[in-house]
Amino acid sequence: MFIVIAIIAFGVLVGIHELGHFIAAKSLGVKVNEFSIGMGPALWKKQKGETLYALRCLPIGGYCAMEGEDEETDDPRCFTRQPAWKRIIILCAGSFMNFVLGLLLVLIIFTQAWGFNTTIIESVSADSPYQDSLRPGDEVYSVDGHRTYFAGNINLYLSRNASQVYDIVVIRDGEKTELNDFSFAPYENSEGQVTYGVAYSVVEANFWNTLEYTWYTAIDFVRQIWLALSDWISGLVGLEDMAGVVGIVDMINDVGSQTAEEEGFGMALMDVAYLVAFIAVNLAVMNMLPIPALDGGRVLFVLLNAVIHLLTRRRIPARYEGYVHAAGMVLMLGFMVVVMYNDISRLIT
Fold first, then answer.
1. Strands (E), the chain
2. What is the pLDDT, as a whole number, of residue 59?
3. Which domains does the chain have, with CATH numbers?
4. Distance from C-alpha of 115 to C-alpha of 125, rounded to nearest angstrom
5. Contact at 8 Å (CB) between 112 and 205?
6. Which in 3, 91, 261, 271 has the greatest CB count within 10 A?
7. Over the stretch 229-250, which tens digit does the pLDDT of each residue have?
8. Catalytic residue among 18, 34, 69, 321
9. Is 18 annotated as catalytic?
């Protein structure tokens, strides 16, 4: 059941993305030749005005085909003849919709919460070596320059610094206090537990706190994606550590099945929705990377064209841009095949 839910969720994520392009294009007067939900042979289609609307058999996304998107055309309403600001809005609209969807899913989940973990120190253990440095009421504002919104953020950024010496900023009595070169490492307390000896407070999940922590969570999703990308570029994680569609579907199935068995189907749906929210924000961020074939790569070409036109009164021919995006798509599909192979290998082993 959760495999089916995961597949449908992917279809919805891509469909929402394309819907964003479609709404923006229609609103800005760009001609849309076809708007399709799903891929493959059409189960239903209807021509309405200049646009063909289609529902296709494979629930794995969709597309918004705009006039002149990757080819030369004389139609004044084609995509490539629009001002740069219109094309950028249309290209960014898909990722914007993905981000909004992730935000709404988190908000729905958080309406069921009773409280949120803060970064405000509630207590410091009596045997803690940090009693003189950290005080109840201190709010841990940042660790090594990284803003912290939840207690979990603190643990994350502490774990990323092997030296265990940090630059920590706390808000104390309404003012920022810097604890530079602060040695902060777990210790063994009198009960034999390895701990930092610091407990953080929980705030009630009222209306405003729910909105605030929903936003913080969405921003935290974005930061996790950037951290993962930086780890991959720096070599801390390899290609074998990445997961594609197959791996993500398997993860959603595992999480949903385990939670359903332990806590019931309703809670399992909440856990799955949280993962889908993260994936939605992930798609929003990844799609805006300046890579050919992605929306971010298309935005890059719009900006390049604007600069070239300003300097030379010429533009990059649409067919050449199409070749670059086609090459980027081939490389990206090859990358996806490698990642999918790794996913399947992990499932087998």
1. 32-48, 51-66, 115-124, 139-143, 146-147, 165-172, 175-183, 187-188, 194-195, 198-204
2. 67
3. 2-110+274-348 (no CATH), 115-204 (2.30.42.10)
4. 23
5. no
6. 91
7. 888 888 877 777 778 778 888 8
8. 18
9. yes
